[in-house]
Amino acid sequence: QLQLVESGGGLVQPGGSLRLSCAGSGFTSDYYTIGWFRQAAGKEREGVSCISSDARTYYVDSVKGRFTMSRDSAKNTVFLLMNNLKPEDTAVYYCAAALRIITNQAMCDRPSDGLYSWGQGTQVTVSS
User: Fold this and answer.
1) What is the average pLDDT across 28-48?
2) I want to staple 108 with a disulfide (CB 3.0 to 4.6 A). Which of 47, 73, 78, 103 is the partner?
């Protein structure tokens, strides 16, 4: 059973940084594409950053240059380092593993795919 658990969220001031972690278990292969998604209050879920099995990353325009995604396959963990946070980054952040073959960009463009395995989410609040 594939399971994902996010951690690292919290309250930060604008311009601050946070690092989110997503720990996985139950993987049956080394070839999962993994994504970070977020959902702000009253808005639809959107892709943030997605990483392929060979560690190639994709970022949506709103976070490009500020966020960095990485993965440690040996520890079954992915990370999202968020720098220069803005109030509009406030959301619940979720990680997901694709259960089918998909590119990093395609995964981020499909935030409601039924063949993703989702974590429980972690709250990020950016406010002064």
Assistant:
1) 92
2) 47
